[in-house]
UniProtKB/TrEMBL annotation:
All residue ranges annotated as the Glycosyltransferase RgtA/B/C/D-like domain in the record: 128-274
Keywords: Cell membrane, Glycosyltransferase, Membrane, Transferase, Transmembrane, Transmembrane helix
Descriptive protein name: Dolichyl-phosphate-mannose-protein mannosyltransferase
Alphabetized InterPro entries for the sequence: LipidA_mod_glycosyltrf_83 (IPR050297), RgtA/B/C-like (IPR038731)
Pfam families for the chain: PMT_2 (PF13231)
Gene Ontology molecular function: pentosyltransferase activity
GO biological process: lipopolysaccharide biosynthetic process
Membrane-crossing residue ranges in chain numbering: 12-31, 37-56, 63-82, 135-160, 197-213, 234-253, 265-283, 387-409, 421-439, 445-461
Cellular localization per UniProt: Cell membrane
Gene source species: Caloramator proteoclasticus DSM 10124
Classification of source organism: Bacteria, Bacillati, Bacillota, Clostridia, Eubacteriales
Taxonomic superkingdom: Bacteria
Membrane topology value: Multi-pass membrane protein
Length: 468
């Protein structure tokens, strides 16, 4: 256990350096194009933080402070989404448009070789948008308000997780304050993406999992953790990384016998699959889906192909899109992709290959808002605060400080050695780091686990203080 913790810690001390350097690069780039709004945002955050510290010093009931933080976070999110008149773009626009077709009884988008037959993991978002359309006259505003409410729920869930991870309500309140003011969570409240729905399920699942690992809940409660994570997964299908992290944590850190460990792993796996299999079965029997939610008519290797493009650093590109479109047979396509990926990685000079992976990895995690303000303001009719063009120095400076605290926390042995729960979050980060290193890269893909850095930044506290 100690050996594995030291190994992961040493690896992350190296792996976080390029991210921090890239993040600092973003800060420098936006500093060169300084806008006055950054001053106002920095002043607003500073005054908010001073007020937060004052309230902490007054030693009010932690529940009251938490409620104030939740209210504060809600106001920030609602203000941003209500004052920003925007429209969904790209995949988000496609899903919103198809939701209207779905309501009219047209399921063709899920059949044959249509877009959602190729990428059925977007199905639940289309159905969710359809539900909102059927309930609200102004469905776009309703989606954003719901996003804001769910993002506010994240403040409470991060508090619960931090309280258990550090055994300190005070440390958990720091986590809640960061969550309330965290730029990505505010930005994505105005983005029409499924991560807003999935994230609370991810967080709640982790909280339940930690309770079991700390022997505060029965092992059978892992069924609940798996079910909740499974629901989050059908909205953003990358939760399998968290499942692997759960399994690794149980095997390495859960101080139980072999039978209990095996039972725990089995409970999580089975419970995790239930929501997806259930939803998939219902949708196929209703004639909505032609293919399974987890496997469309197009191989998932297409993401690996795009992720291997050295010229675009693993991002979407026309070259690979044309290559994929040139095949009619999925098996032939998968075979051709594997050959092409192998060729790219084996025939590229080693220095160029190392630089490619380094650049792809660091830029994946370096954006202060994970692309949130770009997607929020991509098609804007009107807005009151233009953060994308005038406030990105503040956004990236905020994130840089969080990363710096996370890195300093790696040297705090009283956390990662004496507090095994912290290693769960390190393992989760490593899992997603590897996933996005192999597959297609986009800044927004990391948003689903942007909360990791909030919790990891709290490791900067001395453990004997955190456990007061």
């Amino acid at each position: 256990m100690k050996g594995f913790s030291n190994f992961v810690n040493t690896a992350l001390k190296i792996l976080f350096i390029p991210i921090i350097i890239a993040s600092l690069g973003f800060v420098y780039a936006y500093a060169k194009y300084f806008k006055t709004l950054n001053i106002y945002l920095i002043l607003f955050f500073t005054l908010s933080f001073i007020l937060f510290l004052y309230v902490l010093k007054k030693e009010l009931n932690p529940k009251i402070i938490l409620m104030l933080l939740i209210l504060f976070g809600l106001i920030l999110r609602l203000y941003y989404v209500v004052t920003l008149d925007n429209r969904p773009v790209s995949d988000f626009a496609g899903m919103f448009i198809r939701s209207k077709m779905f309501l009219s009884g047209d399921y063709s988008m899920f059949h044959n070789k249509n877009y959602y037959a190729r990428y059925p993991h977007m199905t639940m978002t289309v159905l969710y948008f359809a539900l909102i359309r059927s309930l609200f006259a102004n469905s776009l505003l309703a989606i954003k308000v719901i996003n804001a409410l769910l993002s506010t729920l994240d403040i409470f869930l991060v508090y619960l997780i931090s309280k258990e991870a550090f055994n300190s309500k005070k440390t958990a309140l720091y986590g809640s304050f960061i969550t309330a003011t965290y730029p990505p969570l505010i930005a994505y409240s105005a983005v029409y993406c499924s991560e807003n729905i999935a994230m609370p399920f991810y967080l709640l699942s982790i909280y339940v999992f930690i309770l079991v690992m700390k022997n505060k809940a029965n092992t059978n409660t892992l069924i609940l953790s798996g079910l909740i994570l499974g629901i989050g997964h059908i909205f953003r299908m990358v939760a399998d990384v968290v499942v692997v992290a759960y399994i690794m944590f149980i095997l390495i850190y859960f101080k139980k016998n072999f039978f209990t460990k095996s039972k725990s792993i089995l409970l999580i796996l089975l419970a995790f699959l239930i929501p997806m299999i259930t939803a998939n079965t219902i949708l196929k029997r209703m004639g909505i889906l032609q293919y399974n939610l987890w496997r469309g008519c197009e191989t998932k290797w297409t993401s690996v192909l795009r992720g291997s493009n050295l010229e675009t650093y693993g991002r979407w590109n026309m070259e690979d899109a044309k290559f994929i479109a040139s095949f009619d047979d999925d098996k032939e396509l998968e075979k051709a992709i594997k050959e092409k990926v192998k060729e790219r990685y084996t025939k590229t000079p080693l220095p160029k290959l190392i630089y490619f992976f380094l650049a792809k990895y660091s830029t994946q995690w370096a954006s202060g808002d994970f692309g949130g303000f770009f997607w929020a303001q991509a098609d804007t009719k009107s807005l009151q605060i233009d953060i994308l063009h005038n406030g990105m120095l503040y956004v990236n400076l905020y994130y840089f400080i969080i990363l710096l605290l996370t890195y300093i926390g790696l040297f705090n042995k009283r956390q990662y050695i004496d507090n095994p729960i912290i290693n769960l979050f390190y393992i989760i980060f490593c899992g997603y780091g590897l996933l996005y290193l192999i597959t297609e890269s986009q800044s927004r893909y990391s948003f689903i686990v942007c909360w990791l850095f909030i919790i990891l930044s709290l490791t900067v506290f001395r453990r004997d203080e955190a456990y007061e």
